[in-house]
Amino acid sequence: xxxxxxxxxxxxxxxxxxxxxxQQPSDHLCVHCGIILPSDAPACLACGAVQxxxxxxxxxxxxxxxxxxxxAIGILAGQPPYTDxxxxxxxxxxxxxxxxxxYSDWAEGAKPAEWHRDLFERLAExxxxxxxxxxxxxxxxxxxxxxxxxxxxxxxxxxxPYRAS
Length: 165
Known about the structure:
The protein is mainly β. 11% of the residues lie in helices and 31% in strands. The strands form two sheets. Strands 3, 4, 5, 6, 7, 8 and 9 form a seven-stranded mixed sheet that branches. The protein has a two-stranded antiparallel sheet with strand order 1-2.
């Protein structure tokens, strides 16, 4: 499907455009169990929870790739001129737009492996302490986790990003 505001091509299951932050007209998630419901459902078809009109912001942990230059001594020792590295990155999107929520330290490698899970878990735990709820995983890589939180008067999306070190 395409964003109703900016026209960006986005997956059908995305509820907020990552480019402009616009809510997309679609089915919505149950406020209790998180399954997808028709937008006009007064109660959840699975758990029976009454649905109330709430405004949500959404977040996804992704991987950012980069490179690290090798110093002159390393190059003389036969090391490659650079090494691949990555870090976990959490972006949020809601009515206020798209913003960075936090990121982990850099780790060496082209792709996260199971032994990098601690970097992911520290970032995910910080998101949970900020009130972000984990959404059911729908395939993809083990680190591709999505979250949501209700927007309230206490929610401040422009806080400085958390750095999980």
